[in-house]
Amino acid sequence: MAFTFAVPDLHGRADLLDLALAAVTARGGGTVVFTGDYVDRGPTSRQIIERLMAGAPEGQRWLILKGNHEDMMVEVCRGRAPIELWVQNGGGSTLVSYGHPRRCEAVDLSVVPSEHVAWLDRLGLLFADEHRIYVHAGIDPTLPFTAQSKKTMLWMRDHGAFDDGFEGKHVVHGHTPLPDGPDRRPGRTNLDTLAWHTGRLCIGVFDDDVPGGPVEVIEIRGELIDALTGRAT
């Protein structure tokens, strides 16, 4: 019997990542799919990136997907989008995690190592196995699998459109925060529980041999973080 563990939006909470990995290890390991949004809002984005870049421990296989926040970070750091777009969506906290001053007249993007930007840019947008599709935001059910757009996979909010799944597969995603989640429907599961703020991270556990939703949800508890200051309360 083999399992896949889905870890949703971490948003700068390296403490929750550590707890999640410990929980996976305690259950014997397996495939771990990270569904994106590792950076912004919380205090330790850099630490998350460095941990994920270091690679999986023995007994685990990691599949690390890109979220819309990683995409914003890459676009800004490569000069293809205005800095304000990223900073207004929590990017300021990410810059601080790289040692950037909290208050300054101009943003210095050079604090972010180029190898981090390159690694984030290479992340995939979707992973599919026999029974499920893992993606950051969603899937457009009106289009075939091969025609899904980057914008849809990173930004989609109309989750009701694929409540019954996609092409016979269960869709696992995050992106839309539901503090009382996860939201479990016949054909999809949204695991995002606003963990960076609430301190409550939910990891979906899926039996690789059985179709459908999670056979278990592992709930991780960490500190509550103030949404305005980014500090523990």
TrEMBL record:
GO terms for biological process: RNA decapping. Coiled coil: none annotated. Pfam families: Metallophos (PF00149). SUPFAM superfamilies: Metallo-dependent phosphatases. Residues 8-188 form the Calcineurin-like phosphoesterase domain. It comes from the Bacteria. GO terms for molecular function: bis(5'-nucleosyl)-tetraphosphatase (symmetrical) activity; phosphatase activity. InterPro entries: Ap4A_hydrolase (IPR050126), Calcineurin-like_PHP (IPR004843), Metallo-depent_PP-like (IPR029052). GO terms for cellular component: cytoplasm. PANTHER family: METALLOPHOSPHOESTERASE (PTHR42850), ZINC-DEPENDENT ENDOPOLYPHOSPHATASE (PTHR42850:SF4). This is Serine/threonine protein phosphatase. It comes from Methylobacterium haplocladii.
